[in-house]
């Protein structure tokens, strides 16, 4: 199993910061390892402090279920298969766009979580961040 290193996490965060700067939306970017433990987090200047925990929990959710939080949200609507999942795990599960599993050689080794803008903004920053791995 390949491990997610601090250097990996820093690269992921830097790519997320670059994309957030491009779109003009300060963000919180969090990276967790395969166990869902926080490896690194950054709150860009001007990013909402209320989104710190959300970014960390988006990363945790993406790793806990090995699915993007956007995909999970799509399946967590009333009458869908994961409706109510956001109430599990003491409310830690996030069903907003912006959390993406990180893979290496088709193996999930962690996840990135982004929060601080609209769902589309969070998602585009998360995609750029994940692409840096």
From TrEMBL:
<dbReference type="Pfam" id="PF03928">
    <property type="entry name" value="HbpS-like"/>
</dbReference>
<protein>
    <submittedName>
        <fullName>Uncharacterized protein GlcG (DUF336 family)</fullName>
    </submittedName>
</protein>
<dbReference type="InterPro" id="IPR005624">
    <property type="entry name" value="PduO/GlcC-like"/>
</dbReference>
<dbReference type="InterPro" id="IPR038084">
    <property type="entry name" value="PduO/GlcC-like_sf"/>
</dbReference>
<dbReference type="InterPro" id="IPR052517">
    <property type="entry name" value="GlcG_carb_metab_protein"/>
</dbReference>
């Amino acid at each position: 199993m390949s491990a997610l290193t601090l250097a990996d996490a820093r690269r992921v965060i830097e790519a997320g910061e670059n994309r957030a700067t491009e779109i003009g939306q300060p963000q919180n970017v969090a990276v967790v390892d395969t166990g869902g433990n926080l490896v690194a987090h950054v709150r860009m200047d001007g990013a909402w402090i209320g989104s710190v925990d959300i970014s960390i929990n988006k990363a945790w959710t993406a790793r806990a279920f090995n699915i993007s939080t956007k995909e999970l949200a799509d399946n967590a609507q009333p009458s869908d298969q994961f409706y109510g999942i956001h109430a599990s795990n003491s409310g830690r599960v996030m069903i907003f766009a912006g959390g993406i599993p990180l893979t290496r050689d088709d193996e999930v080794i962690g996840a990135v979580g982004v929060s601080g803008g609209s769902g589309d903004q969070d998602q585009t920053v998360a995609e750029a961040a994940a692409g840096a791995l």
